[in-house]
Peptidoglycan/xylan/chitin deacetylase, PgdA/CDA1 family
Amino acid sequence: MLVKRAGYKRKWLLGMAGTFMTLSLLCAGCGFQGLTGTEKDTVSSQQEESGLPPGEAQVVRDDSVKYSVPEGVSVLMYHKVGDEKHNGAVISARNFERQMKYLKDHQYHPITMQELHDFVTEGKALPSKPVCITFDDGYEDSYTVVYPIMKKYRFPWTLFLITGMVDQPGRMTWGQLKEMADSHTVTIANHTVSHPHLSQLKSRGEKEKEILNAENTLVEKLGVRSPWIAYPYGDYDKEVLQICKKAGFELGMSMSDGRAHNGSDPFTIRRIWIGNPVDDKHFEDRLIHDNFVKL
C-alpha cells in the first residue's frame, strides 16, 4: 500500500512540473500577443542583423501568411505633408496619420520596393492586403512628420529623392537623409537631379546626366545604390527607359493611375495619387480596386 501511494506521489509531482513548464512557456510568449502580422514582422527584423546596404527598408515576413494577390497592389504616391489646404499634392499631418492608422487597424501590410519588384517580375507571394507607400521629392516634412509616423506604425516606405534640392530651404538635409538611410525603415531612391520633364530634354546625354548623376550622388552621400527610380511628373520616353535598363535599374515609377500587377511592365509601374482631395471613403476605394473615382 505504501509503495502504491509513493508511485502516485511521483506521478503527481511530475504532472505539476509539466504544468509549470507549460505555463512558463505561455507567459514567455505573451509578449507577441496582440501584435499584428506587420508588428511581428518588424519585431523579428529588429532582432536580426539586416545585412542590407543603407537606404533599403527591411521587413522580415512570416512565410506562413502569404498570398498570390491576383487583384494587384496599390502603390500610394504622396508628395508633401502640410497645411496647404488647396494644394492637391499636399496632405495634412492629421489626415496622413489617420490614413496610416486605417491601414494598421484594417490589417493592411505595407511592403518594400524589393517585395513589389519580386511580385511584379516573378509573381512572388505577398502578405495579405499588401500596399506600397511612396513619397516623392524630399520635402523637410518627410523627415519631421512622415519618418516619425512611419516608425510609430512600423511601416516600410520609399522616398524618391531629388538630389539637387537637398539642403535647400524647405527640403531635407543630407544629415537627416543619412539618419534615415541607416535606419533600414525607409528605402531611398532616385528622382533625378533637378526634376525635369525627361522626355523634353534635348539629348540623350542630358537625360543620362539627370539620372546617373543623381545615382552617383546617392552613393557618394549616403552609400545608397538604388535600383528604383520615379520619373519626374511621370514623364519618360523610349530613350529614358533604355537608359534606366542599361544602368541597372529594376523598377520605374510612373504617375499613371492604377495598381501594380504580376506581369506589369516593371519600368512603368502605376501609382495612386494621394493628397488633400482624397478623403476617407476615397482612400479606402483606392486600396480595393482599379476602378476608383478620379478626383
Observations:
- The chain has two domains: 2-31, 37-288.
- The CA atoms of residues 111 and 132 lie 5 Å apart.
- The first strand starts at residue 74 and ends at 78.
